[in-house]
Specification:
- The complex is a heterodimer of chains A (111) and B (244).
- By secondary structure, chain A is mainly α.
- Helices cover 78% and strands 0% of the residues of chain A.
- Chain A contains six helices and no strands.
- In chain A, helix 2 runs parallel beside helix 6 and helix 3 runs antiparallel to helix 6.
- Chain A is elongated, with a radius of gyration of 18 Å.
- Chain B is extended and about 95 Å long.
- Chain B starts with a helix and ends in a 22-residue tail after the last helix.
- A two-stranded antiparallel ribbon of chain B has the order 1-2.
- The chains are: A mainly alpha (111), B mainly alpha (244).
- Chains A and B meet through helix 2, helix 3, helix 4 and helix 6 of A and helix 1 and helix 4 of B.
């Protein structure tokens, strides 16, 4: 585990926000960057969760849209969220996204 | 450095940073999502490169868009109505899909097996069910004898139980000129199922029409959706300055 992943996710995110705020970018530029970071983080969560859903149940629901109800969705999601391995993988994934954000900030000249 | 130059520089930096994140996101999403690429449903976010979705998915998506758009426009009652009919609508869409699919199969079968008028006529000739019309017979026979003009003689033929075929349209005739074009046409029908496809597009278009600014209020009135509720921005929307 490197130094970055040993930090808490929230702390790393707060650190990124502070760096962006100090960057001297316009509010519009900052807003666009935050929107992108938010989109990126959102997009990685569901694929990780999906890996821990029983495949047969997922496909059954996907092939029968009429069965997709709030209750069915909650039942489906209970399984991955009761698996500690899922949280571990999710943690690693969001940290690797923050690694990408670190690199992106360097690309944008933010130290 | 001028203000404009500074602005251009920060814009360039922003583009580089966002571009980097976009590329990384696409790559990561592709790697994570390829195992699930066959799960075509709203519970899986769209992947960058998708196979052509089935028409049923398109029609279901169109229905979902109707619900969302009515909500966005503030027609809460109409949105609730569509939510309530959702299970019935899904069943209806499935029936619709299979009806149009059956129509595609029927057309494919007709392309293969339905005889053209020419085939019917040939069959009549083979069976001997052919007469020379009284009006033309002498003239046509004379013409044929003198000039060998087969076309005129054919015109003079009349058939017992004459039939006109649905398959006389030019595309079908062209298709049946040789087995290769016939196989190509059937494969095309099998792959693209045009009637089903057009049906799905029609439902999408219908969804766009009933949620258009012109028609949505009328639909809302018909469904007893009540007055339009103006949406208020959430108190925390927008970017608040964060002090470092």
């Amino acid at each position: 585990m490197d130094m970055n992943t040993s930090m808490k996710f929230e702390d790393r995110l707060a650190d990124i926000v502070v760096r962006v705020e100090k960057s001297g970018w316009t509010d519009e530029d900052k807003e666009a960057l935050y929107a992108k970071i938010s989109e990126y983080l959102h997009s990685v969560v569901l694929p990780v969760v999906l890996k821990y859903i029983p495949n047969a149940e997922l496909h059954d629901l996907a092939n029968n849209p009429a069965k997709v109800t709030i209750d069915a969705f909650i039942e489906l999601m209970k399984k991955p969220f009761s698996d500690p391995k899922m949280f571990e993988e999710l943690n690693n994934t969001v940290h690797s996204v923050l690694d990408d954000v670190d690199t992106a900030l360097s690309e944008g000249g933010i130290v | 450095m001028s203000e404009q130059a500074m602005r251009m520089e920060t814009e360039g930096a922003r583009e580089r940073a966002i571009q980097y994140l976009t590329v990384r996101q696409g790559k990561r999403f592709y790697e994570m999502g390829k195992g699930e690429k066959n799960v075509k449903t709203g519970i899986v976010p769209p992947v960058p490169k998708v196979e052509r979705t089935t028409p049923l998915v398109e029609t279901v998506t169109a229905f979902e868009e109707v619900i969302d758009k009515m909500g966005e426009k503030g027609y809460v009652g109409a949105q609730k109505f569509f939510e309530n009919v959702r299970p019935v609508a899904y069943d209806g869409l499935r029936v619709f899909q299979w009806t149009t699919r059956a129509a595609d199969f029927a057309v494919t079968a007709a392309m293969l097996f339905w005889p053209t008028t020419q085939m019917e006529n040939n069959r009549n000739v083979a069976k001997g069910n052919v007469l020379l019309s009284t009006k033309w017979s002498s003239e046509a026979a004379g013409n044929f004898m003198e000039n060998g003009n087969m076309k005129r003689l054919k015109k003079a033929l009349t058939y017992k139980n004459p039939k006109r075929s649905l398959m006389d349209a030019q595309p079908f005739k062209l298709m049946r000129t040789n087995p290769a074009t016939e196989i190509l046409a059937v494969a095309g029908m099998w792959r693209f199922r045009p009637i089903e496809w057009v049906g799905a597009k029609a439902i999408q278009l219908g969804g766009k029409v009933i949620t258009s600014d012109l028609v949505a209020p009328i639909v809302n009135n018909i469904l007893g959706g009540g007055e339009r509720v103006e949406k208020k921005p959430l108190p925390f929307s927008g970017t608040k300055p964060i002090t470092a």
